[in-house]
Structure formats: C-alpha cells, structure tokens
Amino acid sequence: xxxxxxxxxxxxxxxxxxxxxxxxxxxxxxxxxxxxxxxxxxxxxxxxxxxxxxxxxxxxxxxxxxxxxxxxxxxxxxxxxxxxxxxxxxxxxxxxxxxxxxxxxxxxxxxxxxxxxxxxxxxxxxxxxxxxxxxxxxxxxxxxxxxxxxxxxxxxx
Amino acid sequence: xxxxxxxxxxxxxxxxxxxxxxxxxxxxxxxxxxxxxxxxxxxxxxxxxxxxxxxxxxxxxxxxxxxxxxxxxxxxxxxxxxxxxxxxxxxxxxxxxxxxxxxxxxxxxxxxxxxxxxxxxxxxxxxxxxxxxxxxxxxxxxxxxxxxxxxxxxxxx
DNA sequence: CCTTGACCTTACCATCATGGGAAGCCTTAT
DNA sequence: ATAAGGCTTCCCATGATGGTAAGGTCAAGG
Lengths: 157, 157
Prior knowledge:
Two copies of one chain form a homodimer. Chain A has six helices and two strands, in the order H-H-E-E-H-H-H-H. The first copy, chain A, folds into two domains: 3-57, Multidrug-efflux Transporter Regulator, Chain: A, Domain 2, CATH 1.10.1660; 77-133. In chain A, helix 1 (3-10) crosses helix 3. Chain A starts with a helix and ends in a 29-residue tail after the last helix. Chain A has helices at residues 3-10, 14-23, 41-55, 60-71, 77-111, 121-128; strands at residues 30-31, 37-38. Chain A is mainly alpha-helical. The interface between A and B is large, with 78 and 78 residues.
C-alpha cells in the first residue's frame, strides 16, 4: 500500500501521515526502491487508532501515550482509563467556559431589540469593558480562563 | 500613558497591543520623541472593548466588525445582534461536538474497570478504529466535524 | 516506445492568537 | 554615574492542518 491508499484506508490524510512520521508519532515507513512510502495493514491499523483518538479530541501528545499503552501487552487498564478521564475533564472544562460565554452573550442578545435603531446593550456592555459586570457572580472564583475558542477550525476532513 | 500602563489598565498585554496595532485592528499609537507609544483613555477603552470581546470568544476578525459598529453612530442594532447570535451558534456547535466526544469517552471509561489488568475496552475501541461503532446512531448525519479541540490553550493571562 | 495523467517526494509557507527571548535604547531613582 | 526596569524591534515557537511548487515515478493507452 502506498501513502494514498493508506490514507483512504485509515481516514488520515497523506499529509498528516507524513507529519506524524516526521514528529515520531509513528515509526518511519518502509520505502520502495524509488522512494515511495509503503504501508502494511498493521500500520494502517495504527493510523486508524490515531484517527479515532483525534476524533475523541485527544491531542497528539496524549495519543503517543495511548499508542504506547496499546502496544504494551502488560499495561494496566487503569492507566488507559486515567487518560480517558483526564480527556473528559479537559473537555468539560472547555465546555463550561464556552457555556459561560454563551450565557453572557445570550443575556446581551436578549436585551438587544435588534432593529434599525443604533442603541445596543451589547455594544454598551463591550464598551464598558471591565471584567466584573454580572454582579451576582461576585466572590465566585472561576479559575482557568484559557480558552479563546472562536476560530480554531482545521476544516472539514 | 505608555504601553505598560495601558496594558494594566485594559487587561491586554503589551505584546498583544503591539500585535493588534501591527494587524490594523487598532490605529497606530502616537509616539513620544524617543519612540515610546502613547495611549489616551479613549484608546484604553478600545483595548478594553477588545479584551471583553475576546473573553466572549469572538475571533479578532469579528472584533473588527464589532469595533466598526461601535464607532458608527448610525449603526443598526440588528447588525450587532446578528454578530452576537452567530457567535452563540458557533459556540453551541463546538459545545455539541465536545459533548459528543465526551459521551463516547464516558461510555468507554464506564466499560473499563481501570485496574491492574491489561484488558481495556477503551483501547479495544480505538484499535477497532472505524467510524461507525455506536450502532444505534446509524443513519443520523451529524455534519460538521471541525473541532479538534484538545490542546489549544494560550495559557492563563 | 512514448505520452499523459495521476500519484509520489521534499520543502516551504500560512493559519490564529499568543508567549518567549535577544539586543539595544530610554527613563527614573538612587 | 550607575543600575534597574521599561520600552523598542525582530525573530521564533506553539498545534494540527492545509496549500503550493518543483520535480520524480508509475501505469495505462496510443
């Protein structure tokens, strides 16, 4: 199988297969005499593993650990489960942040009549700018404001 | 006010202020004789506007539109509201994707006993690799798989 | 046997918003 | 005068992905 066939069979683009190889996530593929990469079913299976892991939102760094556990026949399932639970936590954290953004936006949008007139509570809020509007939330440390979220979209695939 | 003071007053780092200037999001700041950037209260207010917009997850591209509307005294609040609702939609879309990842992960984690033994339904699932497990969901087109989500974290601030 | 088109190779650039660092100038306080 | 700390510009890195360009290869059909 050449890289294009492996890509089709695994759902990982040829581009990404080369990238994963270059970063050491997957071992260097064999080559034909003329330099084409060659893939066996085993390698395609590994690519599918990666693809599925990405679909579950695992960063490549974690996938490296998952692959190591996958290969290690004396692994402890607890180690795998911990990675999964960590991933769930991370997702939940980001979801919560986005939900709080959404709630603020919804509140503002509800207050905006959205007609031809220029008066707009949304702009008024943004213009006020500070961080401690939402006065009923005072004293409640919300921690971790990482997420910037909006425009990170690799695009289709 | 020099850039450091403007940064403290607005919650936008000096680094980002320079970046926003370089990309044209904000106008070029005035300079002292020796080349230091100078900021007025008006400009700090604009920076706070930007900061607040980022906190609501707007991408810089959209903030450009928001700023234009902010400055336009003959704007129509409907235009602002549309931006807000679009942003809500985007957030909801991403939240849904992450929730579906979470649900899959939770199901797998629940099935994993997480002890010292090597048998692990999580790895088994990843290893199976395909896309159409979850057989009760057949036929239900889920659309838009953009989100890769996991490790995009600018970090604190 | 040769052409054509579809594929492969590498190498480089872009994304998006952000941080890090270096090298050098300026300002302020001791 | 000197030291500390802030400012300037410039370059690089992030993460995962796509795009493009220049050139080699393979298979099918003339």
